[in-house]
Design a protein that fits this description.
Layout lengths: L3 H16 L4 H7 L4 E6 L2 E6 L2 H10 L1 H12 L4 E8 L8 E6 L7 E3 L15 E2 L12 E2 L19 H12 L9 E5 L5 H15 L5 E5 H13 L3 H9 L3 E5 L9 H16 L3 E6 L11 H7 L3 E5 L4 H15 L5 H10 L4 H17 L6 H14 L6 H11 L14 H17 L4 H7 L5 H17 L1 H15 L1
Parallel strand pairs: 2-3, 6-7, 8-11, 8-12, 9-10, 10-11
Antiparallel strand pairs: 1-2, 3-4, 4-5
Helix pairs in contact: 1-4, 5-6, 7-8, 11-12, 11-13, 12-14, 13-14, 15-16, 16-18, 17-18, 18-19
């Protein structure tokens, strides 16, 4: 009988050869941390550091893993995952066993590995994340963008409450009723700008305060690394040293599992109890973030929830004028107004249109006139693709097959609804940046393995079934229209 360590060692060599010399970093990141546990009845069990790690392997390397296992164990060879989830914040770590491309199975207790770190440093700058044990003084890189200030954040009816709350927070961080301050609104409406601006103003007024800006993706990656390296306590300790924490785009956590949220929940509680300021931004209002852990969601409602909405035309004109003034560029008033009236989606696209017009004028040596603005705006509006969302894809698919919009969310196994659901998952994976978990969540609360299966099913039918191929082509055209 083969030894499980030998089998996995042979597998690693095959995987490394297949990845090639240009992907050594990929191999070190995603395969070297894997630990073989046992081999029984042609099933090799491997331990991976986290759920995120497991999902990444399943999405990006499952075919390579399957081929490799079958080369080593024969056509009936199988791979089983054991996921080490460090929940030492709230209890004992657990190991969950998950078959390859399968659903979660049983839970078993596992021992927490101790962390030993030595350091003689007393002063060091840490951009992110962890403070090593024994460090008395630490200088944290705030990660604030100096171009985003309150002075160049144009006030209007769309953001007046949020901006006023920002000034109040900067004056007296952690001591107002605006803690936490939740800034929410659609894409490109200035949430990130305002969050940076409040942090910068706070540092100006209170130089001794430690301010840290971090995106939700950065926080997630740091947490995953801390679990993989078994130094989650250092991760938590680092964030507990911050006086003023800004977390950007928390809505992305709806797809990232409960353990990251659990870690932030405890950090949030600690900072709030110590009267430290917390600012959080989101594309969604709290009432629309139902996939967040209820305990964490309730914390977000403790302070002020300030909405940033689409700016009206007068605010859009003011934004354009300020940008031109900052760049030292003069432009006719009628051109500015024309842009403001015709680009009414968000600030990001408004400024993008202005930059495109300036570039057209400069590169083609043409004077900026209302005629040039009309030509450029027509092209800009046509070329600016509408954001494709999972909700939009669901509407197109349901409309195409004349199904009720909520049918995709239903548990029914009727053939026509299952096909519509699979097509929605397929196009969501192909045309959006959403993770498998968030796609599954919005398509009937399915797991990521179901999404993978649906995508493969659609791809296969697209190649072998003429009617299905026609549906795929027609739907993609309608979604992209």
């Amino acid at each position: 009988m083969q030894n499980y360590k030998t089998v996995w060692s042979n597998c690693l060599q095959i995987i490394k050869d297949n990845l090639g010399p240009n992907n050594e970093q990929v191999f070190r990141t995603w395969f070297e941390p894997i630990v073989p546990i046992q081999l029984e009845d042609n099933v090799l069990t491997i331990q991976v550091p986290s759920q995120f790690f497991y999902e990444w392997l399943e999405e990006h390397f499952i075919d390579l893993l399957k081929r490799t296992i079958r080369l080593q164990l024969g056509p009936n060879g199988m791979l089983k995952y054991s996921i080490l989830m460090d929940t030492s914040i709230a209890g004992t770590p657990i190991t969950t066993s998950i078959p390859s491309s399968g659903k979660q199975a049983t839970y078993n207790r596992a021992k927490e590995m101790p962390l030993v770190v030595n350091s003689d440093d007393n002063h060091r700058e840490i951009p992110n994340p962890f403070v090593l044990p024994g460090i008395q003084k630490v200088k944290i890189n705030s990660q604030l963008n100096g171009n985003y200030t309150l002075e160049n954040f144009v006030e209007g009816d769309c953001n007046r409450l949020a901006r006023a709350a920002g000034y109040a927070v900067a004056e007296n961080p952690g001591r107002t009723s605006f803690n936490p301050l939740l800034l929410h609104g659609g894409v490109g409406l200035g949430k990130t700008h305002l969050a940076h601006a409040i942090g910068i103003k706070t540092k100006e007024k209170h130089p001794d305060i430690t301010v840290l800006y971090v995106t939700s993706e950065q926080f997630l990656q740091q947490y995953v690394e801390s679990v993989k390296n078994k130094n989650t306590n250092d991760f938590i300790h680092f964030y507990e040293l911050v006086d003023f924490l800004i977390l950007d785009d928390i809505q992305f956590w709806t797809s990232k599992g409960v353990h990251t949220q659990e870690a932030f929940f405890h950090i949030f509680n600690y900072l709030h109890q110590k009267n430290r300021q917390i600012i959080i931004t989101s594309d969604k209002a709290p009432s629309e973030m139902g996939s967040l852990e209820p305990r964490l969601l309730s914390r977000l409602k403790w302070g002020l929830s300030a909405d940033l909405s689409t700016p009206d035309v007068s605010t859009r004109i003011a934004i354009l004028k300020q940008k031109l003034d900052n760049d030292g560029i003069e432009m006719p008033e009628d051109v500015i107004e024309y842009i403001a009236y015709n680009i009414d989606t968000n600030i990001r696209e408004l400024e993008g249109a202005l930059v495109s017009l300036i570039a057209q004028s400069s590169l083609n040596h043409r004077q900026i006139t209302i005629e040039l603005a009309k030509q450029m705006i027509d092209k800009f509006v046509k070329s600016t693709s509408r954001e494709i969302t999972i909700d939009y894809i669901q509407r197109v698919v349901c409309d195409y097959f004349k199904l009720p919009l909520d049918s995709i969310q239903s548990p029914t196994r009727k053939r026509e609804i299952v096909q519509a659901r699979q097509l929605t998952m397929y196009f969501a994976k192909k045309l959006t940046k959403s993770s498998l978990a968030i796609i599954g969540l919005q398509c009937g609360n399915k797991d990521h393995a179901t999404v993978l299966h649906a995508c493969k099913t659609v791809a296969n039918l697209n190649e072998t079934d003429k009617q299905f191929h026609f549906w795929v082509d027609e739907l993609e055209k309608k979604i992209r229209e």
